[in-house]
Amino acid sequence: MFAIEKYDDEGLYCTFYTVRKEDAEFSETDKFLNKYKDNVKFKRSLQELFIFITNQIGNKHGALEEFFRFENNANALPPTGKHKIDEIYINYRNFPLRLYCLRISKNLVVLFNGAEKTSSTAQNGKTSMVFQEANSFSLAILEALKLKQIYITPNKREFVTFDNQDEIYL
Amino acid sequence: MKSKILQEVINQTPKDVAIFVDKYTSLVLRINELLKEKGYSQKTLADKLDKKPSEIHKWLNGEHNFTLRSIAKLEAELDEILLDVPVRKVATEFNTSYTKTTYILTAYANLGNTDNIKTPKKWNYNSTIYELSNVG
């Protein structure tokens, strides 16, 4: 079981959610930040990545498809067939870090965890476990949407449960 | 709301990082937009610029920093402005025989001939009244 919670909803064009495992102190995205924010090797890249996420995606352009790279994983094709597990990466820099996410729409993205990119594919290297977990989270979220356990609000910027619970657990 | 850890990372991010990311994103989005408008593939562009397709791919996927020269080549080939530098124009208006107001106008859009600015995208101006010194 995990919780879906808001991560950043201050942008004009896109809201970011994240997931938190049961009994975990930090969300998956905060774990990613905590891991690399004080590492001299990755600090600048991390800053660029999250400035890109908050300023460019959140506040300026929205979650344009060209900002994301799709990790083609047949095993992770969701029930709807419309969404795939997306590796969010800044399309314009060769970043050493990968952050996984589920792009619901131009206005709604769920961020997961990530890791250092040590392989050309997500399934290998240091990112493989977080990629597998991202797949699991994404499948659960998409299944919940399909079964109408959760909805997207009319403004397309929020998740709500069918019974309007304050917290969302899947 | 924003995650506290995210806010901490954002607060520690130097201003130049935000500026760089903004300009880089805008530049690559604009180039991709122009390529679509003109019906160019990356290979077509590579051929026109006499470069390898892999090099164009690196430009457009962030693996290679743009230089001013490469931007100039792109502007020449695409026949569109990609980067622009604000133009500053000083205009003086005489209010009375004794005073004048000086406007410093900065245009942030490429308006071509700045002698005939009519609808600037953005103005910064200051207004200072100078006493003329040759009034007896």
How would you concisely characterize the structure shown here?
With 170 residues, chain A is an alpha+beta fold.
How are the elements arranged and paired?
The complex is a heterodimer of chains A (about 170) and B (about 140).
Chain A: E1 2-8, E2 15-21, H1 28-36, H2 43-61, E3 68-70, E4 86-88, E5 97-105, E6 108-116, H3 128-146, E7 150-152, E8 159-161, E9 168-169
Parallel strand pairs in A: 2-6
Antiparallel strand pairs in A: 1-2, 1-9, 3-4, 4-5, 5-6, 7-8
Chain B: H1 4-12, H2 15-38, H3 42-49, H4 53-60, H5 68-78, E1 87-94, E2 99-107, E3 128-131
Antiparallel strand pairs in B: 1-2, 2-3
Detailed description of the structure:
The complex is a heterodimer of chains A (170) and B (136). In chain A, strand 4 (86-88) and strand 5 (97-105) form a beta hairpin. Chain A has 170 residues and is of the alpha+beta class. Chain A has one domain (2-169). Helices cover 28% and strands 27% of the residues of chain A. Chain A has a 7-stranded mixed beta sheet, with helices on both faces. Chain A has a two-stranded antiparallel sheet with strand order 7-8. Chain B has 136 residues and is of the alpha+beta class. Chain B has a 3-stranded antiparallel beta sheet with strand order 1-2-3, with no helix packed on it. The longest helix of chain B is centred in the N-terminal third of the chain and has 24 residues, at 15-38. The N and C termini of chain B lie far apart (64 Å).
Largest interface: A-B, 33 and 25 residues
Contiguous helical run count of chain B: 5
Name the helix and strand elements of chain B from N-terminus to C-terminus, one letter apiece: HHHHHEEE
What amount of the residues of chain B lies in strands?
15-25%
Amino-to-carboxy terminus distance of chain A: 5 Å
The total number of structural domains of chain B is 2
Strand content of chain A: 25-35%
Helix content of chain A: 25-40%
Rounded mean pLDDT of chain A is 82
The total strand number of chain B stands at 3
Instruction: Tell me about the largest β-sheet of chain B.
Output: 3 strands, antiparallel
Any idea how many domains of chain A? 1
Helical coverage of chain B, percent range: 40-55%
CATH hierarchy: architecture of the largest domain in chain B: Orthogonal Bundle
Spatial gap, N to C terminus of chain B: 64 Å
